[in-house]
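Dear all,

This email documents one entry for the complex benchmark we are building for the journal club exercise. For each entry we list the sequence lines for every component of the assembly. Then comes the predicted three-dimensional structure of the complex as a token string, followed by one or two observations. Please use this as the template for your own entries, and keep the labels exactly as they appear.
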Amino acid sequence: MSKLVLTGVSRRFGSVTAVEDFNLTLLAGEFVSLLGPSGCGKTTTLRMIAGFLEPSAGTIALDGQVISSPGSARPPEQRNMSMIFQSYAIWPNMTVAENVAFGLEVRKRPRAEIRTRVAQILEVVRLQHLGDRYPQELSGGQQQRVALARAIVVQPGVLLLDEPLSNLDANLREEMRYEIRRLHDEFKITTVYVTHDQAEAMVTSDRIAVMNAGRVEQVDAPRALYARPRTRFVAGFIGRTNFLEGEVRGGEVIFDGFTASAARFAETPAAGGRVTFSLRPQSIHLHRARPATSDAAVIVVGEITQRAYLGEHWDYTVRPAESALTLRVTARPHEVFEVNEKVWLEIDARQMAVIAEA
Amino acid sequence: MRLDRSTLLWALLVAALLLLVVNPLARLVWTSFQHADTGALTLGNYAIAYGRWRNVEALVNSLIVGLSVGVLDLLFGVPMAWAVSRTDMPGKGLVWAAVLGTFIMPNYLGAVAWMLLAGPNAGWLNRIYTSVTGAEAGPFNIYSMPGLVFVIACYSFPYVFVFTRTAFDLISSEMEDAASTLGASVWRTTRRVTLPLALPAILGAFIVAFLEAIALFGVPALIALPGRFQVVTTMLWQFFEFPPKVPVAAAYSMPLLLITVLLFWLQRRLIARKGYVALTGKGGERRLVKLGLARWPVLGYCLLVTTLSFFVPMIVVVQAAFAKAWGRGFSLDNVTLRNIRFVLFDQPATRDATWNTFLYATAASLLALTLALAIAYIVQRRLVPLGGVLTQVAMAPFVIPGIVLAIGFYAAYTSKPLVLYGTAWILVLAFATRFLPIAYANSDAAIRSVNPELEDAARILGGSRFLALRRVVAPILARGLAGAFILVFIPATRELSSAIFLYTTGTQVLSVLLFDKSDEGNFELLSSIGLVLVVVTVALVMTGFRLVGRDFMLRRTAT
């Protein structure tokens, strides 16, 4: 069942278009991230969903009812949503328990119920012993948990998160990713999560909407997004990649310096024209001797031009023979090659994704 | 529906600003071009206002006073600011407290004190002089141009002190170190690096001191009038003697208004030239200049200035306030509580004036603060269009001398459709307008410090904007606003220059009473009235320290 539907949503600030023709449907209980570089319009989209901004065009519907359209937006307080802010926005004049109880008080729940539910949720976020503290006395991670508890305790129809982890240090950020996902698995609240950090989006989300310059580039599950990026931007933004341009002619794809049978690819490129593939550095394997041929592999001779050792892996740059291409290849730490050494590249053609060129 | 409510609020605020700022100013200008009887457009008022040498001379006198005070203020304030900010001078706390004390003393009370000290014949200094030298008469006469300049300078140098000290505080030691490593001595570094870096702030402070001096009414009225010379403000006062010649007064006040607007604009530009001022951030370590033996003369200078501005005047005022007759000196049988009791309880006129002072100041402060808060809030949250204009109008009274504002109020509200003259309201509204900029600057800063996300958080959880304001914004702002209230309330209790034109029988306040009684030569009563104001101010300032911190007063009023 669709819970939240954004149809053709645009937002302009003066002459600047922040969001353009945004379409997205969230199923009930789904966790979707808006991922993109800063200034791509993701926070603007979130604030339109929350009701702090009106769309300039398009509609937003919740449970089948339009809640935002140009010139008429239901105010934030009437949307039964919760939001977690970049600054956490924990009220410094209230204790942790008072912060968490606020939404329930506004909803006029009986006092006894408020007390039990606050206690329960504080236990869920592991802050049960800190209810009487003031926010200034808490660490960043603890404040983050208060924000989570305060947002979840009201059992909102939709939970919105605006870069909630960007103010935490690296270790804590990693821990909180799993925490957010754990809470989602426990409460199944429909969630929209805004971030510029792809790892955060990958860990937490059911689906990710990648945004660029106000537009949605692609919406997909994390694995599909990585394995089958549809645009150059998505391929480059999610992980690292090589772009290979080729020409499809007579059942063959001709690249600079080598060719491959069109049938080897997972997606058969359209005949008679140019095509661009995204090839992940992990999908190329390096060998000292020519590897055995297989259906899916394309075998190419090349030479190492650069290398860097990063501990967890090697980062090689390889130039295929008689080619102007430079390919980035990731290899395991024990796969040591010297610069200028001749190598065999084994390219997994099934992992190459066709990119739509604008 | 939401739109309607904010439109209504917006309309209300616009109406309030029209009433308080725009209308009085517009009427002031308009009246200056209107014939007193026929209402026809004319330049006649200007001809009358500047047609007599006596009147022009008063303007010249004001300019002389302004320039002299500015120079004297720099001599008083800049070395002190440098010593407190950049050196290892001992006794900084004491100097700081004395400057604050000077700030707290109403300047007309300072004038009273200096009348006690340097009045011809009976003044303390003259009496000491004659008794030591055996001469017939002492050399001091406060009722003179030098006397006037000196007294005004004593009570305006704190502005210079605060301005320059802030600038000195911002200059990082690395700037000075760079000069020192090239072989420059402390003196040379100070002269070639530190002072030039602070120069825009020093010039800005000079302008503020100049403007303060020419806009002042109380001190010139107490000193220049008995000294038989005039300045612009006392001249304006004479135009108001019965029957009031309002159009002439309005015309006569125009140069004062124009000079003020122009110089404030200039001051803004000086301060805004960031490339010049060493605003390299608070980063950069600051080390203090080691004065060595020179630190004692430097401290001596600071104490000398504050002795003249604060310690000695305070002593003579307290003595007079508790004396049966101040001339009988410091002896126990001369001590009485009669004067104070008289002011606070016994005499109906003074008792009412005391009550009025605090009532009007409270009302004006609340009004100014409410208005300022509402404007600052809707402007910052961009709830209405043209927020920038609202801000400008709210800050406009900053560049209007109090006495000019009062003439504007008089011109606007003594005739139909809205007659406020004769009621307490005209005083309350004039005070509120006069100190609206202080209220606005503080409200603006306070609201800026509240992250809008705190409000958003309350709203997304189901609270209305009003609930968010009440439960979240108001409690967070409470302390800062208490400080802002005090900063508006203190000048409102002592305001004289606008009150003097707008009070009537029954709406007297203490400052007016003090001025009225000054003809009678009852210095014991004058000192008592002043002391009441000082004691209340001190109590409020202490409260402010507890709420907002030690620096709040000197920092916020001067910027």
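Observations: The radius of gyration of chain B is 25 Å. Confidence is low (pLDDT under 50) at residues 275-283, 555-559 of chain B.
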